Amino acid sequence: MKKTIKPTFIQLITKQFSIIFIFFLSLHISVYAQSGASTNKFKVVLDAGHGGTDSGTLGNGLQEKDVAFDVTNRIYELLKKESDLEVVRTRTTDFKVPLSRRAEIANKEDANVFVSIHCNGVANPNPKGFETFVFGVRRNKDNLETAKRENSVIYLEDDHEKRYGNFDPNSPESFISFTLMQEEYLDQSILLANYIQTSVLKSVKMVDRGVKQDVFLVLRETFMPSVLVELGFLTNKDDATMLKSDANKQKMAQEIAKAIIEYKNALPSEDTSSSQYVETETTQKIASVSFSVQLVATSREIDPDPKDFKGLEPLAKLVENGMNKIVYGYSENYMEAQELLQDALEKGYDSAFIVAFDQEGNKITVNEALKSKLK
After folding, report:
1. In this model, does residue 231 exceed pLDDT 50?
2. Which of 239, 267, 295 is the last residue before a domain boundary?
3. What is the structure's pLDDT at 24?
4. So what's the pLDDT on residue 67?
5. C-beta atoms surrounding 179 within 10 Å
6. Which residue among 258, 282, 303, 362 is buried most deeply as judged by most CB within 10 Å?
7. What digits encode the pLDDT tens for the residues 86-99?
8. How far, in Å, are 7, 54, 266, 283, 287 from residue 280 at the CA level?
């Protein structure tokens, strides 16, 4: 079912090879993945961030390493009850695991997905909320600060210069080549991240900070769909109070576990892989999906005039079930749609959300749109 990547590939890629040769290896891995041996169980690697002498972020009496470990173990206990899943943890006690070792565990285990659990923290006590990251070139300053904080733990490793070469957590150039390696799994990672983000926020009342991309070292070397979950800001009193509650941590764990299962069930069946090459009327319609952001819905007549919507454009009007709806922006890229959503939220449209359409302009669910990219 899945990919087995030898550790020597990672060592060579991270320390010796050029961007062009990395791209070649990426193609090689893709071919290898398609012809690799199958296993009956869907394997999940759960990674509790930080540990041991690396406490992670601190705030309001909480340590990131403890909260992450607690929630990760709760997810583990829930998933191991599933007969068709195999679950592995990168750490089972309070000890420090190097970032590269965490990815190595996932690759050696030939995992289907890698889920890393963390908590956020910044100097400003106001930011709060739940967010999920996939690997990719950073999009904004806020994401950069989160990535820099999570990546800075490499300096706690005695042999970080040998292990990570000339890697600089603050340099965009350090990540260009590794973005190529993760592109193969980006659509799957986004789908998994969206399931987690949506599921958790249906159950727990927190600020929705969305699905984002950034350059996290722990995701850099994993050769499978991978996400990093930030449970909340320990430096914010509301989020810290939420994460001190066993009931809330259990809810989060339940929703993350459910999202992983939903993701597994959404994947195309390997037994019918040949159907992926047969173009039907349905697959042609959904072959090129797009995303926009719904700003408002009202029963009164309304025109999509940018001056009436704080300068946001382009705008379009939809009529659905007797309601007039204004949507903002257009993109075939879900991560770009997330940026459009942030634009709308910053303009004061607090109830804005992403909507999806098929090639003919018919509205579909976001999950349907994301799943279509896996076909």
Report:
1. yes
2. 267
3. 37
4. 98
5. 17
6. 258
7. 999 999 999 999 88
8. 41, 53, 19, 5, 10
CA distance 21 to 114: 25
Residue 38: CB atoms within 10 Å: 7
Instruction: Write the CB contacts of 109 (distance below 8 Å, at least 6 apart in sequence).
Output: 43, 45, 88
Instruction: Provide the domain limits for residue 303.
Output: 277-372
Closest residue by Cα to residue 154 from 110, 106, 212, 215: 215
Cα–Cα distance, 142 to 152 (Å, whole number): 16
CA torsion through residues 335, 340, 346, 352, sign? negative
- For the full predicted model, state whether its pTM sits above 0.85: no
Give the residue-averaged pLDDT of 296-313: 92
**Residue in 70, 45, 56 with CA at minimum distance from that of residue 251:** 70
Q: What's the CATH code of the domain at 292?
A: 3.30.70.1070
Which residue, chain included where needed, has tokens 């009327």?
A: 281
pLDDT of residue 135: 85
Structural contact between residues 90 and 22, judged by C-beta atoms closer than 8 angstroms: no
Model confidence at 187: pLDDT above 60: yes
